[in-house]
Amino acid sequence: MAGIPFLTTDLTYRCFVSFPLNTGDLDCETCTITRSGLIGLVIGGLYPVFLAIPVNGGLAARYQSALLPHKGNILSYWIRTSKPVFRKMLFPIVLQTTFSAYLGSEQYKLLIKALQLSEPGQEIY
Question: Which of 23, 37, 78, 120 has its CB surrounded by the most CB atoms within 10 Å?
Answer without folding.
Answer: 37
